[in-house]
Structures are given as structure tokens and as C-alpha cells.
Amino acid sequence: MSTASRQALIRNDLLSLEAYASERSAFRARAIAHKRERSFALGEHMTLLFEDRLSVQYQVQEMLRIERIFEPEAIQEELDTYNPLISDADNLKATLLIEFPDAVQRAQMLAAWRGIEHRLFLQAGTGAKHFASADEDLQRSNEHKTSAVHFLRFPIDAQVRQAMQADALLTLGVDDPRYPETLGIPAPRARLLLSGQD
């Protein structure tokens, strides 16, 4: 069985609606704290959350709760939708939010930044830039604008893993003159992204 398939959530991993209702407060607090450790602000207008089993399980549990979903087939549909977001041995997967509080400015910038989701990268130490694949499930940009939410997959290989485990700085960035931002992620937090796949 591949690492990727072991990461997938199954119905037995989920709490029933009743159980989740009673445990939601504690589960939510745990999930939010966990997501905070895996979230990174890239400049003022981009935030990335690197997803794993716990962050995705929280999303699924909330969807089941909100929609009052309890039929096995419908639960499986939710799992099939969200399981591809879980990071695995070969890919770090992230939700990208493009954030502008003002609605008018947001519309202008989403038009100006069309396609920028394809310019995000990860780089371990002085190694090669690993550019993200964006929105493989569904096209979220069109000829007029990009979306405020994207799902990214950053491929990682043995060299990247070795560099991160050897305390190399992990750089998250946008290789685009429209928003030339970079962020250095210290080794302990970078290793957390690799180890948070259980």
C-alpha cells in the first residue's frame, strides 16, 4: 500500500454526528491550534495552510455537521472530495487564500493576478524551486480573473526531504513580479510539515 493511500480518511476515522456534537468543542480547539502551526502568511495578501489528515478530517466533520449528512454514500462522497487535499510522501498540499478586505480592491487584484497561483514555489536551501500545481480537481481561474481560493500541490523529492531534515531553510515564495514575496520557514516548522502526515 502506498503512503498516499494510507493517508486517506475512511468512514471509520470519522465521528458520528452525535459523537461529533458532544466532542466538537475540544476537537475544534485541537484542529484550530494544529492548523495555526501549518499556516503561513506570505506577505499581506496570501495565506497558505498545508493540509494533513487532521485538518482535512476537521473540514469533513464540519461539512457533515452543517449539512446533516449521515448516509454512507453521501459521507463517502465527502471523503472522495476532501481526501485528495491530504499531503503525502511525495507532495505537500496546501489551501491558498488570496485576501483583500475591501471587496472592490479584491475584485481588481484578482483580475490583475490572473494565473498567479501557478507561480508559487517551495525551495529547500539553495536547491531547485519546486513550483506548485494548482487546482488539479477544478479550474478556478478564467480569462478574466483568478479565484480567491486555490488548492496547491508542491512536489517534493528525496533531496528536498534530506535538506529539510538537515536543517536547511525552507523558502516559500511567489516567483512573479506582480507579487514578489518570499518567506523563510525555519527547519523545525518545515520538519513539522513532513511529519504531520499521520
Characterise this structure:
The protein is α+β, with helices and mostly antiparallel strands and 198 residues long. The protein has helices at residues 3-7, 17-37, 53-67, 72-82, 103-112, 158-165, 187-195, and strands at residues 39-42, 46-50, 91-98, 120-124, 130-131, 133-134, 149-155, 170-174, 182-185. The chain has a five-stranded antiparallel β-sheet. Helix 2 (17-37) crosses helix 3 (53-67).
Which stretches of 5+ consecutive residues score pLDDT under 50?
A: 1-5
What distance lies between the first and last C-alpha atoms, to the nearest angstrom?
A: 15 Å
Q: What structural class do you assign from the helix and strand content?
A: alpha+beta
Task: Describe the main β-sheet briefly.
Answer: 5 strands, antiparallel
> In percent, how helical is the residue content?
25-40%
Q: What's the rounded overall pLDDT mean?
A: 91
Oligomer: single chain
Write the layout of secondary structure elements.
Blueprint: H1 3-7, H2 17-37, E1 39-42, E2 46-50, H3 53-67, H4 72-82, E3 91-98, H5 103-112, E4 120-124, E5 130-131, E6 133-134, E7 149-155, H6 158-165, E8 170-174, E9 182-185, H7 187-195
Antiparallel strand pairs: 1-2, 2-3, 3-7, 4-5, 4-8, 6-7, 8-9
Helix pairs in contact: 2-3, 3-4
